[in-house]
Amino acid sequence: MTLNASDLGWDESSGAEPFSPLDQLDSSSTYEVPPLTVWGVALCVSGTLIATENAVVVTTILATPSLRAPVFLLLASLGLADLLAGVALILHFLFLFCVEPSDWSELLTSGLLVTSLTASLCSLMGVALDRYLSLSHALTYGSSQSRHRAAVLLLLVWLGACVIGAGPAMGWHCLGEPNSCSVARPLTRTYLSLLCGGFLIVVMVTLQLYAGICRVARRHAHAIATQRHFLPANHSYASKHSSGRGFSRLIVILSVFVGCWMPFSLWGLLGDASSPPLYTYATLVPAAGSSLLNPILYSLRNKDIRKVLLQACCPHKCTQNTHIHYPVDV
Question: Which uninterrupted H or E stretch holds 218?
Fold first, then answer.
């Protein structure tokens, strides 16, 4: 089929160029990439740092056969979850500033971020549970049965996280109904409220586990204090110093944990689509920042993981030592 100039409403005597609907289609379909902002640079840099450091942790644990105790399985799960969070931030940056965004890109990044944050938070609860069990059941800690239970727990955690993260892609989103959007588009307010309510429950359970760790450690300290007159003076001082250092580390870990997760969990319950986006960013950044701090607070503080990394970087300065520290110094 051929279009004539008269069919397009063009007068040859007017001197104007012929107008075609295809020209309008081409001009309207051209997507202009928005200019790069400070927020975009921070998004890309933070996502790259999170993905890199957690990839180092996961590779170190998986490539070392001696690191197969329950605590290392939990740390590998935590590193993998935080690695996915970094990848989600990088994808979000690419869809914002490099390629034309679409509905599927929003659903992909939001689902991946929900999955990673859910698995990360549940893995943190698993680390707290592992610390509690390693103190209260020190004789059976590190057995094959404990590793089997840890593997089953991680399987359930990741299955649950994947199911929860698939919610937006399965239709639980607000792309067709803007009025039902939450503070984090394209998640609906009902979905985000349930998600943040679950986050708060996990946070409270984790705090209860750390409270149990403090009680068990206090009993151990009391038992040591009752036998102090049987110990040398320098040994007693070392025990006090180690106990005080352990509690100070615990306070730092709990402060970072609550500071990262509590703001977004509360804001997701209280805010709505009409809330200022600045508040959403201000509460979501600490939650994502938890993925940047977790390797430093948990994995890299473990002596065995540090030893493997030092052997990989400086093999001539490290001596072989197969002893694995199973207790809670992670």
Answer: helix 189-226
Q: What are phi and psi of 225, to 5 degrees?
A: -65, -35
92: three-class secondary structure by DSSP: helix
pLDDT tens digits, residue range 260-307?
Answer: 888 888 888 888 778 887 888 888 888 888 899 999 988 888 888 888
- Whether the CB-CB separation of 196 and 268 falls below 8 Å is answered with yes
Q: Which two tokens stand for residue 324?
A: 């694995």
- The span from the CA of 284 to the CA of 105, in Å, is 19
Which residue has 């209260």 as its token pair? 136
Burial (CB < 10 A; 0-12, 13-18, 19+), residue 250, is: middle
Which of the four pLDDT bands, split at 50, 70 and 90, describes residue 87? very high
**For the residues of 26-89, what is the DSSP string, one character each?**
HHHHPPPPPPP-HHHHHHHHHHHHHHHHHHHHHHHHHT-TT--SHHHHHHHHHHHHHHHHHHHH
Q: Which residue has the tokens 């040398």?
A: 232
Please give the Cα distance from 174 to 24 (Å, whole number): 30
Task: Specify whether the CB–CB gap between 85 and 288 falls below 8 A.
Answer: yes
